[in-house]
Amino acid sequence: MLIKQARLRQIHRRLVPFMTIPLLLTLITGMFFQFAVVIGRTDEFLWLLELHRGKFGSINLELIYPILNAIGLLTLVITGLMMWLQTNTRKQRRV
């Protein structure tokens, strides 16, 4: 069953603004904390690990932040792949 491409684009377009900041935050904090591990200075950068896990000062989202990140990213990947596959299928039919 093919979902209409317009509906896929709508889902994808609406989710992107909500997922951009959390995914970038996860990416950047994880990357910089890994640099801290490599240079042996993890004690000074534990705050990066807290941000990476979803603890934002007094707001603690550690239980749901990874799940929301995963669901959002998975949805973006699935809708993106479906749009890409539908586009490629249409191109192959024309040839």
UniProtKB/TrEMBL annotation:
Keywords: Membrane, Transmembrane, Transmembrane helix. The chain crosses the membrane at residues 21-40, 63-85. This is PepSY domain-containing protein.
